[in-house]
Amino acid sequence: MAVLRQKIALISVYNKEGIADFAKSLVDLGWKIISSGGTAKRLSAAGIPVTDVAEITGMPAILGHRIVTLHPKIHGGLLAEDTPEHLAELEKYKIPWIDLVCCDLYPLEEEVKNKNATRKSVIEKTDIGGPTMLRSGAKGGRIVICDPLDRINVIEWLKNGEPDREEFLNNLSLKVEAIVARYCSIGSEYLSHGAYKGIFGQENLECAYGENAYQKPANLYTIASTVLTARDPLAIANWKLVAGNPMSHNNLCDVDRMVQTMTHIGAGFEKNFSAVPEIAIGVKHGNACGAGVAEVGLRQNGRSPTSAEIEAIDKMLLGDLRAIFGGSVMLNFPVDEKIADELIHKFSSEGRRLLDIVAAPAFTPEAVEILARKKGKCRILANQAIAKAGLNSLDHINRFRYVRGGFLTQPNYIFVPSIKNQDVILAWAIGCTSNSNTITIVKDGGLYGNGVGQQDRVGAAKLAIFRADEANNGKADLAGATAYSDSFFPFPDAVEVLINRGIKIIFSTSGSVNDEKIIELCKKKGINLIMLPDTEARGFYQH
């Protein structure tokens, strides 16, 4: 502006934690503070000079505090451009130029999630003044702050002389528009009973390409959320790349699938055995090709942690030594030199096993050195939240999937059965996070064969057995093994295939017109058949 003047900040927040410190920092830099209602009282109580909005507008809050800042003397100060015409109008109507607006929004999302929410309570928690101030400030090119995490950044930026001003302000404005858009969509979705739905995300990283080289661009977006909503510690963006090349699209899909399988195994064991064992899973194209769990209670029986971890890894590797080559691994325990050596060299006829991804809670420097591949081809990922992840680690956010011209939504995969058999729980957790149709065979805490993505149950059963045989010199010992089917058997034929290879426990769902025939066959053959209703326990995944 042509004349030097005191800069003005408009502060109006619902959550007042830390707001006094922010306002004081501005005052120390020579700023004047305008505020209203509870925010003004909080700042005054902290000894911070503040001018009430009512002194600017000449009007008190009206309509039960519904209208406070919705006034030309506020929005004129946010929307005016630095032109002679606009400045003259501001002077004529005694409107102050407002340089900064700091505002969070009423907790609409929290109210919508409240099981006791009503239409009236949701409307009352729908902010009007806040979004309007933020968007006016964004359009006017002002400093706009809707995320408390940005307050410190703004103060540091001001102290440093406002470098890269246009880019800095633009980034703040983009965040405002995205958060306000999502905020409005939350209200729309609730009030329309789901007839309208929005999906909002922020770019986290750019991949070289998608599933195939010609599919460009490809990006990972993190789902936008209010600043008050706790971020998921196991979200893919929260995995730290310790070593290796940047993650590809396919790498990210594998990590997402491994997290699902790992958390389902942990949740199943915690629910049924009150403990999460040491778990190792290996995948190829998202589906488990090997998995192993240490027997629950090994540590309590005096066995060392490393011994249990090695047991889980060895069971995982032996699931399919051929498939795991070039595959991805996830562990729920830290990786040291001994664990890394086990992963790379144990049972490896080639001298060294190549892995694309190794993900675990943490890695020692020695472990990273052992696991690393030339040209960074082994991505090493760390996230402490995967350590002994159990029931609380299941993903409860609704899933969505693009279909031509639209997208599908559904609740996440959160069903966990109550069955006191470790092999059954392991088989279920693997099978219900593998591409349907699936039959999964487990024995002694290890995955033997995973027959995924088949069009019929017989094919899935034969594939599971084939994979088990291929991994065991052509003939796996399946006597006493456990099989899981992710839905009911339409005919007894697939059950006969499993029984003929020595499977003794079968977990499936009921709902077939031939349920009675299957039950009778299992009774006749001495098979322990566990059935839950298909409507409750069907385990289809990534259909």
UniProtKB/TrEMBL annotation:
Annotated Gene Ontology cellular component terms: cytosol
Pathway: Purine metabolism; IMP biosynthesis via de novo pathway; IMP from 5-formamido-1-(5-phospho-D-ribosyl)imidazole-4-carboxamide: step 1/1; Purine metabolism; IMP biosynthesis via de novo pathway; 5-formamido-1-(5-phospho-D-ribosyl)imidazole-4-carboxamide from 5-amino-1-(5-phospho-D-ribosyl)imidazole-4-carboxamide (10-formyl THF route): step 1/1
UniProt entry tagged with the keyword Acetylation: no
Any one GO BP annotation for this protein: 'de novo' IMP biosynthetic process
Keyword match Hydrolase: yes
Top-level taxon of the source organism: Bacteria
Listed Pfam families: AICARFT_IMPCHas, MGS
Database matches in InterPro entries: AICAR_Tfase_dup_dom_sf (IPR024051), Cytidine_deaminase-like (IPR016193), MGS-like_dom (IPR011607), MGS-like_dom_sf (IPR036914), PurH-like (IPR002695)
GO MF annotation: an example: IMP cyclohydrolase activity
Domain MGS-like: from-to ranges: 1-148
Family: Belongs to the PurH family.
Protein keywords: Hydrolase, Multifunctional enzyme, Purine biosynthesis, Transferase
Protein name, per record: MGS-like domain-containing protein
CDD domains: IMPCH (cd01421)
